[in-house]
Amino acid sequence: MFSPRRSRHVRRRRWIVLGIVASTLVLAINAVAQSQGRESALRIATISYLDNVRPEVERSNSLGAELADLRARATELGRATVSERLQRVGIEALAGVRAVEKVAPPTQLRTNHSLLVAALAIRARSADTIRRTIGEALNPGSPPPPATDLVRATEDLRSADRSYELFREALPDDEDTAMPRSAWLDGEPLAPEEASAFISTLRSAGSLAPVRDVAVVTITMEPAAVGSEGPAAILPPSPTLKLQVVVANVGNDAIRQLPVVAAVAAPNGDVDTARQFVDLEPGQRATVTIGGLRLAPASANELRVTAGPVEGEATLSDNERRRTLLVR
Questions:
Q1: Are 101 and 118 in contact (CB under 8 A)?
Q2: What global pTM score does this model have?
Q3: Quick check: is 6 in a domain?
Q4: CA–CA separation, 313 vs 310, rounded Å?
Q5: Domain that holds residue 250
Q6: Bridging pattern class, strands 285-294 and 320-327
Q7: Domain-located, residue 226
Q8: Quick check: 145 pLDDT over 70?
C-alpha cells in the first residue's frame, strides 16, 4: 500500500504533468494563431500591393494595343498623326513606370516587383525607339533610320513580355491575387528583312513622287531545314521543294502582275525554274506559293528567289534572296 506521503507525491507529479501539457497546448495554439495572423497579414499586403499596380498593367495593355495599331496603319495616318500619337504612347508608358516605382511592395514580393518595373521600363524605351524610327522613316528630308534599331526594339519587347510573365507566375494562384496577361509583341520579333521592308514602305509613303519598289521579305521552305552548316541550310532528302515567299510592295504605286521567280541550280549545272504572278497595292504584302522545284539528291543546290524588278525601280538590293541548300 502507498503511504499518504507517497500518494501526495504522485498526485503532485500528475498535476505538474498536466500543467506542462496544458502550457504546451496553449503555446501551440498561440503559435498557430500567430502564424495564421502573419499569413493573413502577408495576404492582405499582397492584395493591397496588386490593387495598386493592376491599373498600371491595364494602362500598359492599352498602350501596347495602340502601338500595334499605329505600326499597322502608319502609312495611311501620316507622319504628323503617327508622331503625335507615338509620342503620347511613350509619355504614358514612362508615367506607368514612375507610378509602379512608387509602390512599396511587401517584403516577399520585392524581387517580383523588380520584374514588373523592368517590363514596363523596357516597353517605354522600346516605344521611344519605335517612335523615333517611324518618324524618321516617314520624313523624306531625313536619312533612312537603321533597320537594326527596329529589330532591337521588338527583341526588347519580347524580353519585356517575358519579364512580366515571370512576375505573374510568381504570384499566389487564386482569384484575389489574379493579374491580367500583358504582352506588347504579337508573334516573333521583326527579322532584319522585315524591318527593312517596313522602313522602305514608310519612306515611300512619305514621298509625294511615285515610288515603284518591291522586295522579297521572307522565304519558308518545305521540307524545312533540319540544321545548318555555315550559311547553308541542311534539308532532308526530298524529290521536290515547295516555297512560301512573302513579297511586299514597299513603294507608293500599285504593282500589277509582279513576277516572283524561284530557281534551283544543281551542281551539274541543271536549273529548275518556277514562277507565279501577284498584284500588290501600295504597302501590301502577299504570300506566294511556288512548288515542284526539283532538288539534286545528296548534294548542294543553289536557291535564288527574285521579285520583279518593276519598271522605274531604283532599289534592287532587296529584290532577290539566295540560299545554299545541302540535301543530306
A1: no
A2: 0.68
A3: no
A4: 6
A5: 210-327
A6: unpaired
A7: yes
A8: yes
* Domain limit, last residue, from 147, 165, 196: 196
Same domain, 181 and 223: no
What's the angle, vertex CA 12, arms to CA 9 and CA 15, rounded to 5? 155
Neighbours of 35 (CB within 10 A): 10
How far lies 1's CA from each of 5, 10, 114, 130, 282, in Å? 12, 13, 75, 98, 114
pLDDT digits (tens, 9 = 90+) for 47-65: 999 999 999 999 999 999 9
**In the structure, what pLDDT confidence band is assigned to residue 154 with cuts at 50, 70 and 90?**
very high
Q: Judge if 177 and 45 occupy the same domain.
A: yes
Query: Looking at the structure, do residues 248 and 173 belong to the same domain, yes or no?
Result: no
In this structure, the answer to whether residues 264 and 298 fall within a common structural domain is yes
Amino acid identity of residue 312, one-letter, is G
Range of lowest pLDDT (78-87, 116-125, 180-189, 310-319)? 78-87
Cβ–Cβ < 8 Å for 204, 312: no
Pair 41, 107 in one domain:
yes
> 41 and 178 share a domain?
yes
Taking residues 121-141, report their average pLDDT: 91
Q: Among residues 140, 166, 196, which one ends one of the domains?
A: 196
Where residue 18 falls among pLDDT bands split at 50, 70, 90? low
If one counts the domains in the chain, the total is 2
Q: Burial level of 298, CB count in 10 A (0-12/13-18/19+)?
A: exposed
Average confidence score pLDDT of the chain: 87
Give me the mean pLDDT over the 278-283 stretch.
90
How far apart CA 65 and CA 224 sit, in angstroms, is 33
55 with 163, same domain? yes
- Backbone phi and psi for residue 274, each to the nearest 5 degrees, phi listed first: -145, 155
- Output phi, psi for 315, to 5 deg: -105, 115
Kindly compute the dihedral angle of the four CA atoms of residues 60, 66, 68, 71, in this order, to the nearest 10 degrees.
Answer: -130
Report the C-alpha gap between 196 and 187 in whole angstroms.
Answer: 18
In three-state form (DSSP H/G/I as H, E/B as E, the rest C), the secondary structure along 50-84 is HHHHHHHHHHHHHHHHHHHHHHHHHHHHCHHHHHH
CB count within 10 Å of CB 97 equals 21
